[in-house]
Amino acid sequence: MRSLFLLLCCLLITACSSNPTTLFEEQVKNSSTPLARTPSEAMRNTQAVPMPIDPGWRPPQWKITAEEPRILINGIPSNYRLFSVALIKDKPFHIDVNSWCVNACLGFSKYALNPYLILMDAQGNVQAEGFGKATGIVGVISQVLKGTVKNSGTYYLIVAADNRAPGETIVIDNVLLIGAAANPIAPLRIGMGSYPFGSVGPLLNTEETP
C-alpha cells in the first residue's frame, strides 16, 4: 500500500514534467504530418471546424496534438487547428481564444499552448496574424483577435502553437496556499510555460465591444 502511495505521488509530481523542448524536437520537427509553408496551403490541408458563438461558461475544447497538420511560422513548424466563422462587413468582431493547462496542471511544472493566430478570407488571403499577448491565470490563458473585415463572408482562423521558445514563461500568477498556523495563507508565484501541444477553445464573442 505504501509503495502504491509513493508511486501515485511520483506520477502526480511528474505529470506535467515532459520537457517541452524535447517534445518539440522529437514530435513536431521530426513529425511526418503535412507541413504547410503558407496559410492558404494550411487551409487546404485540413477540415475547418465551425467556431462556437457565445457558448457560455463552458466553451468546447479541441486538442492540438502531434497528429495534427503543421504550418511553418517564421521558419518554425507548429501543429494547428482550423476554424471557420461568418463575419459581417464593417461590423466589429471579437474572437477569444482560450488555451488550457496541459495534464490538468498536475505536478510542479505548469504548461499551456500559447496560441499563434492567423485570420484568412475564403481565398486564403491573410487578414491578420501574429503572436498576441497572453493573459490569464494558472489553468487557462487567453488571446483576443478583434477588428473589422471589408467583405461579409466565411473567414478561417488558424490556431497554432507558438514554438519560438518551448518552455518559456507566458504568464505568472499568485496562488494562495494553506500554510502554518502562524501564517495560514501564503501567496506563491507560479508561472506557466509554453508547450507545443494543448487544448484550445476559440469563440466568437458578440457580447464584447471590440
Describe, in plain words, how this protein is organized in 3D.
- This protein has 210 residues and is mainly β.
- It has one domain (2-204).
- The protein is 14% helix and 44% strand.
- Strands 1, 2, 4, 5, 8, 9 and 12 form a seven-stranded mixed beta sheet that branches. Strands 3-15-6-11-10 form a five-stranded antiparallel beta sheet, with no helix packed on it.
Q: Supply Rg.
A: 19 Å
Q: Report helical residue fraction.
A: 10-25%
Poorly predicted runs are 1-17, 174-182
The backbone outline, from C-alpha atoms, is globular
Q: In what range is the share of β-strand residues?
A: 35-45%
What is the ordering of alpha helices and beta strands? HHEHEEEEEEEEEEEEEE
Query: How many DSSP helices?
Result: 3
Q: What's the quaternary structure here?
A: single chain
Give the integer mean of the pLDDT values: 84
Total strands: the figure is 15
Q: Quickly count the domains.
A: 1
What class would the helix/strand composition place it in? mainly beta
Largest sheet composition:
7 strands, mixed
- Tell me the distance between the termini: 56 Å
